[in-house]
Amino acid sequence: MAEPAARLLRLLALLQARRFWTATELAERLEITDRTVRRDVDRLRGLGYPVDASVGVAGGYQLGSGAVLPPLLLEDDEALAVTLGLRTAAVGSVTGVEEATLRALAKLEQVLPKRVRRKVQDLQGAVTSLGSAGAAVDAQVLSALAAAQRAHEVVLFAYTDGQGSDTQRRAEPHGLVHATTRWYLVAWDLDRADWRTFRVDRINGSVQAQHSFVPRAIPHGSPAAYVAHSVTTDPYPVQARVVVYARKQDVARRVYPGDAVLEPLGERCLMRVGARQPEVLAMHLAMLGIDFEVLEPPELIAAVSELGKRLTRAASASKRRARS
Asked: Rounded to an integer, what distance in angstroms lies between the CA atom of residue 1 and that of residue 273?
């Protein structure tokens, strides 16, 4: 490879590695003059790479966005990550991207260096996917919701609720959250004047973007936290706060993701969890195998007390039988 061509590739790699470079920084990295930097930047532009320039004391260069996606230079670990991501997407819960995913994967694997291809093959041979157990969502619906959220535009869509009723919804989108096997839209429902979580797989047809809106403060601080509370406690009649006598990361290993919200409390953690019956929740808490203290509600405290008495009676009876 001729030196100017190799230098262009090095320049492109630098522009992709960081958002902004001064001409002096690029010249020092490439061991060339500022004038040569300007000349090489013009060559990149001629090849279709949109390089933006700014003048003045704080002036420099950054890689902009263009009408056509130019080739990207990936490090080995980046190429491995992209390949694994494409393999995961090919069997994921988002529909409408399978063919494009496989095309992109074929292009990437064709040019992978042997050392990276070997790592991909090792992982592919060791890891087996069962596919997605969740309901499939339309990639175009996800894309339209994401675009409307980014532009702060109200969306109109047809929705089927949990009871099977079909409605037209107008909402201000504030976030998309992937939780366990489902996608959720966190939005302010304009017709109901309240926050809602919409399952994206229940959105039917296209999403229409309308006029703009001013974003609101999301309950619990973020879309992810709001969804966590919405699917773990809010839908249930019994909503509990429990102090578990272990660190958050240790408790998280024993709780299925999406079943509870955990907050660190030093060497302990606060668990927010919901259930349909206090007796069932008491049993699940006991099965954690960790000491805990119920803060609320009173009916759960009573259920834990009754469960403890029942287990004590069972243990005493079992010991008497063992001695006889």
From this structure: 62
